[in-house]
Amino acid sequence: MHLTRSTTGWSMSTVVRRAVPAIVIALGAAFISLPGAHAEPTVTVKDVEAAFHEAEAMNEQVNQLGEDISKTSKQIADLTAEIAAQTVVYDQQREALSATIVQQQMDSPLGTTASLLGSGDPEAFIDGLGAVQALNASRTDALDSFEQVSAQLENRKTQLDDRRASLKADKSDAAKKQKKVKAKYDEAKAELARLTAAERAAFNSSDITVDFDIPAGGRAKTAIDFALAQLGDPYVYGGTGPNGWDCSGLVQKSWAAAGVSLPRVVGPQMSAARRIPMSQLQPGDLVAYGDMSHNGIYLGDGRVVHAPRPGKRVEITGLGGYSVAGRVG
What share of the chain has pLDDT > 90, as a percent? Predict the structure, then answer.
């Protein structure tokens, strides 16, 4: 049935046409208010910084495992060489003892002492008995030495098996952690991509300008000069130069240029330095985050040179985030 406008109102088709838009608007409003239909949470610069920090902290764990693997590999090489040398001594002593026993049995099937008892010459008997006692004492010493070498050889072989098992476990752990580092890094990049273009540009900018005097001398100046020469180099996970760095790699090589050997990883580096209050910082001192996930070299004027994170370059920054200080030497 089709209704048309009359003096009393609208036709049915007109009412339907006017009602449909209102229904659509109402349904849309209802959908927006439904649970689970919320917009994705806003990502802040602090969120992105935290994501990259997690990746860097795990990278330092990988660095430590790398150091453990290198140390264990050297121990395995040393043990292998020691076992080879001891095996030569072991074989020589064993052959010497075997030859002595065989020769004795060939010369005197009934035993040396029994042969002497059959001698009709008393003086020869006394001389021969003394020789037998001396020979037996010599054999006792040789046997004792052989037993010591044998025990040492077995001990080294046990140590070698233990070190090989440890190496295998560390390599497996390192591989797992490297995967986690990559996963954390991918998450951080995804968070970064959600920032505005202006925020991303500011987040990835690096200050490489030295616009203040650095009152340093001696080895501290040498270390600082090396670090400043790397300004603008990219951050690389596990980087120890010459063209890419992570935080602890830059610190280690900077002080190596000054003739000071530091461990590879942040925590051990800070342990190798003499702890000082942050209020007593001098150029060349090491500064680190409290969780030992990041460090840098203090320049003075409240500034630090460091390798920050992927996507950035070796730069100069402030003391924000640093809470632990150590003096080298």
Answer: 46
